[in-house]
Design goal:
- This protein is an all-alpha fold.
- The chain is 74% helix and 0% strand.
- The chain has helices at 3-34, 43-48, 64-70, 73-106, 110-119, 127-138, 143-150, 162-186, 190-198, 203-214, 216-231, 235-240, 248-258, 262-293.
- Helix 1 runs antiparallel to helix 14 (262-293), helix 11 (216-231) runs antiparallel to helix 14 (262-293) and helix 13 runs antiparallel to helix 14.
- The longest helix is centred in the first third of the chain and has 34 residues, at 73-106.
- The chain is flat.
- The protein starts with a helix and ends with a helix.
Length: 297
């Protein structure tokens, strides 16, 4: 019996070591660089960077780069834009996924199946192509304005706007959320729904009291993955968004490549990482709850 925990640790050791070496160690090195440690693996990038804040000993720290970034009104504006787009995208994606899941569960018609199939189509389209398609669709000479002009009206130009970023992120994030929420809703036994209906519960009450509590875990997983993916997005805001305000993923690339400020770019990455870690805590909670409900812990 005592060998089982050891055997379990040995079996879990390889993936944990891979994550530690290829993910954890680079993160630690980057955080050290943001705090002024320019030696070791950070030597090469430190030699070509400008406006760095450095320290002389390993126990010393400097928050000069953080002061530079958080004191820049443009970065603060882009941070607020990123948080806003992430929040709106996550809420809309989860709501749409639930609408599709409920329609598929209670309808079961061919129209519901077609809708569910169309919702996952963006999963098979590369993000670059999807971003360019959405941009041209809402551009000044795109499909929407062209149709409006043929009808004698005028539609707004959404291309290169934050609204276009939000629409594109919703479109690219919806497939995974739909699959997760639909699987959770479909896994609820029919007996529970029928029992609630026999007791006089209306459809909204059945959703609120039966389906939603039993589908919390897949819903949280869908929401966390959507939020984290939107938070660190680069391709979609780069192609479809304006030059200002933009999202932090674009800022990171600009600070690193265009401005030659890698230390400040790492600071932005750390900020995104901290926010994503907070969102990821919900994912960990959802997995722990699922394991506890299954009797594994």
């Amino acid at each position: 019996m005592r060998r089982r925990p050891i055997a379990g640790l040995l079996m879990a050791a390889p993936p944990v070591l891979v994550v530690a070496v290829f993910v954890g160690f680079p993160i630690a090195t980057a955080i050290a660089y943001s705090l002024g440690h320019v030696g070791g693996l950070n030597t090469t990038i430190a030699r070509i960077a400008r406006d760095q804040h450095t320290v002389d000993a390993w126990w010393q720290q400097t928050f000069g780069a953080y002061t530079d970034v958080l004191g820049d009104a443009r970065v603060v504006r882009d941070l607020m834009t990123t948080v806003t787009v992430t929040f709106v995208t996550t809420v809309v994606v989860v709501v749409l996924a639930w609408v599709i899941a409920l329609y598929l569960r209670f309808s079961g018609s061919r129209a519901a199946q077609v809708l569910a199939a169309l919702a996952v189509v963006p999963m098979f389209i590369p993000v670059v192509i999807a971003s360019w398609a959405i941009l041209t669709f809402y551009a000044g000479d795109g499909f929407v304005r062209s149709v409006a002009a043929q009808l004698g009206g005028e539609a707004p130009t959404l291309g290169y706007t934050v609204t276009c970023i939000t629409i594109a992120m919703i479109w690219t994030s919806l497939p995974f959320a739909t699959l997760m929420v639909t699987s959770g809703v479909q896994s609820v036994p029919n007996a529970l729904i029928e029992a609630a209906a026999d007791a006089g519960a209306s459809l909204p009450r059945i959703v609120r009291s039966v389906l939603l509590p039993l589908s919390v875990v897949p819903t949280v997983i869908a929401a966390t993955f959507t939020a984290i993916a939107t938070l660190g997005a680069f391709t979609v805001p780069y192609f479809t968004g304006p030059n200002a305000p933009t999202m932090l993923g674009v800022d990171m690339a600009a600070f690193f490549q265009s401005y030659n400020l890698p230390q400040q770019a790492v600071v932005i990455a750390v900020i995104v990482f901290v926010i994503a870690a907070g969102i990821g805590a919900l994912y960990v909670w959802a997995n722990l709850r699922a394991a506890r409900d299954a009797g594994r812990i």
